[in-house]
Design brief:
197 residues, lyase, Barwin-like endoglucanases, six-stranded mixed barrel, 10 strands, EC 4.2.2.-, RlpA-like_DPBB, four-stranded antiparallel β-sheet, alpha+beta
Length: 197
C-alpha cells in the first residue's frame, strides 16, 4: 500500500489522459543531415525533415535527463539500417532513440501506469513529430515488447538517464565497437544485468 502511494507521488508529474495519446508510431525521419558541431556549451545541431515537418534540434552537452512523455517504437522499416551513432540498428536489441541526449547513453524507461521499467542503450536520434505530441523516446521493437507496449504502439513513460553509467559507457564505446554492431559485452554490462521483468 505504501509502495503504491510512493510510486503515485513520484510519477504524479507524468499523468496524462490515455485518450489524449496518439495510437500509432510515426515514421522517424526521411532525411538526416550530418550534425554540425557548435561550441562546447551548446553541443551540436542537426536537421531532420519528415512527413511531420522540419526540425532543427540542438543536442544536450550533459547526461542529466528526467522527463515524462510518450514512448513509441520503431521496427521493420529501420531494421539493419545505420543509426546516428554509426552502428547497425537491430530492432530486437534493447536500444532506443532520443532527440537530444549525448550518444551513447544508458536510459531507464518506466511505465507510468504500472511502474514496470527497462534499461536501454540510446544509440539513435528520434522521435521527430509535431509539437503537442509530447513524444520523448523511440524504443526498439524488442524493448517495446519487454515493456509491454508493442501491441498498443505507445505508452506513457518516465525517462531517466543513468549519468555515471552513460559516462562510463561513452569512454568504453570506441574500444569495444566492432563491425558496425553494438558490442554484446557492453549490452550485457549496461543493460541485461539491470533488466527486471
Amino acid at each position: 500500500m505504501l509502495y503504491a502511494l510512493f510510486l503515485s507521488l513520484i510519477l504524479s508529474g507524468c499523468i496524462q489522459k490515455w485518450q489524449d495519446m496518439p495510437r500509432k508510431p510515426f515514421s522517424r525521419y526521411e532525411n538526416f543531415r550530418k550534425p554540425v558541431q557548435l561550441n562546447k556549451k551548446d553541443g551540436y545541431q542537426y536537421t531532420i525533415k519528415n512527413s511531420q515537418g522540419h526540425f532543427n534540434i540542438t543536442s544536450q552537452k550533459h547526461y542529466h535527463l528526467d522527463e515524462c512523455g510518450i514512448a513509441s517504437y520503431y521496427g521493420d522499416k529501420f531494421h539493419n539500417r545505420k543509426t546516428a551513432i554509426g552502428v547497425i540498428y537491430n530492432q530486437w536489441d534493447m536500444t532506443s532513440a532520443h532527440p537530444t541526449i549525448p550518444l551513447p547513453a544508458v536510459l531507464k524507461v518506466s511505465r507510468v501506469d504500472s511502474g514496470k521499467h527497462i534499461y536501454v542503450l540510446a544509440i539513435d536520434r528520434g522521435p521527430f513529430v509535431k509539437k503537442g505530441e509530447n513524444r520523448v523516446i523511440d524504443l526498439s521493437r524488442g524493448a517495446a515488447k519487454v515493456l509491454g507496449m508493442e501491441k498498443q504502439g505507445v505508452a506513457h513513460v518516465r525517462v531517466q538517464c543513468l549519468v555515471r553509467a552513460s559516462e562510463k559507457l561513452r569512454k568504453e564505446w570506441h574500444t569495444h565497437k566492432k563491425d558496425g554492431k553494438i558490442p554484446y559485452n557492453l549490452v550485457s554490462k549496461y543493460v541485461r544485468k539491470n533488466i527486471l521483468w
